[in-house]
Amino acid sequence: MSLEALIAILGMAAVTFAIRAGGLLLANRLPTTGFVASWMKHVPGAVLAALVAPAILAGGAAEAIAAAVTALIYVVSRNLFAAMLGGVLAVYLARLALGG
Amino acid sequence: MHAPAPQSGSAQFWLGIRMFLPVAVSIAAYGVVWGVLAGQAGLSVLEVALMSGLVFAGASQFVALDMWTPGALPVLSIIIAAGIINLRMLLMSATLRPLVGHLSLPRQLGAMFFVSDEQWAMTMAEVRKGKGSVAFLLGTGALSWFAWMGSTLCGRVLGAFIDDPTRYGLDFAFTATFLALLLGMWRGRGDLVPWIVGALAAILTSRLIEGNWYIIVGGLVGSFAGALAETIRERRHVA
To answer: pLDDT for B46-60, tens place per residue?
Structure first.
């Protein structure tokens, strides 16, 4: 394992634990409603949207079709694993069909 | 004293484990996915064990994989991204304070290590029923930790048998998983603004700035827009 990788992992662990512990220590001072609380609540969704959108845009027709299939399977089944497998299968078949 | 007699700590611990079992199964399912993707991203078995065991926070670990480029690891942006994504836990552990108030500080902090979306949600549901305890939280947390650790290692070891991921479309597994995780976060129309703004900000940033900063920029700008929209809606509602 490289030193870089070790620092990245330990850094992630330290930051994450500091947040978990910080919430407890700052409990009386943190806003539970209002703008800041609402901002924090929306972060995970916005981060995932920020991850997905450029990836889909960078792909071709096969990736766009597969993204639609993934979304459809997830909405119907609510199963992450099924959605991922369906998406991978769809991109595989679409690339074959489109010759990509 | 009209409250029902509290259960013993170990009874609460085992109750937490029993109630968490179905959730642990779904955690294990995406843990396997994460492990396979970790192998693709170039993480060793030891790195997988260290990250799952010490960071123990799924969403931030998925994002770290997306940024993981061995040889030229963007260490700082990986750590910042983890901090931003896990910031929501600040509010979770804050609400758990009444549950751990009677413990010594080191024990309080130790218990907080096990706070994550699912464990917190289930413990708070128990608290709302007038039950729930730190032992219950630890039961859910212990099972969750073993499920996450075991499944991510399994995925990493099994994934090593796949030689060329792009040949089978497995390179798309990242995007598919993130897309499904995102859809699973849908709570209502209030999510529309942060998602769309986050997506557009990320697309724009990825064209303008090199590297993975678009994830952090999109996440911050999108969630800010979401909070802004929510505040404006509430003001109108009041007025």
So the answer is: 999 999 999 999 889
Identify all chain A residues contacting B202, using CB atoms and an 8 Å cutoff.
49-51, 53-54
Q: Are B195 and A12 a contacting pair at CB < 8 A? A: no
Instruction: List chain A residues with CB under 8 Å of B181.
Output: 48, 80
Give me the pLDDT at residue A36, please.
87
DSSP secondary structure string for all residues of chain A: --HHHHHHHHHHHHHHHHHHHHHHHTTTTS-SSSHHHHHHHHHHHHHHHHHHHHHHHHS-HHHHHHHHHHHHHHHHH--HHHHHHHHHHHHHHHHHHHT-
The residue among A43, A76, A88 with the most chain B CBs within 10 A of its CB, best to mutate, is A43
C-alpha to C-alpha distance for B51 and B101, rounded to whole angstroms: 29
Instruction: For chain A, say whether B92 makes contact (Cβ under 8 Å).
Output: yes
| Check: complex ipTM more than 0.90 | no
Q: What distance separates the 2 farthest-apart alpha carbons in chain B? A: 66
The string of pLDDT tens digits covering residues B10-69 is: 999 999 999 998 888 878 888 888 998 899 899 999 999 999 999 999 889 999 998 999
Of A13, A56, A88, the CB nearest to B173: A88
Distance CA A4, CA A49 (A): 28
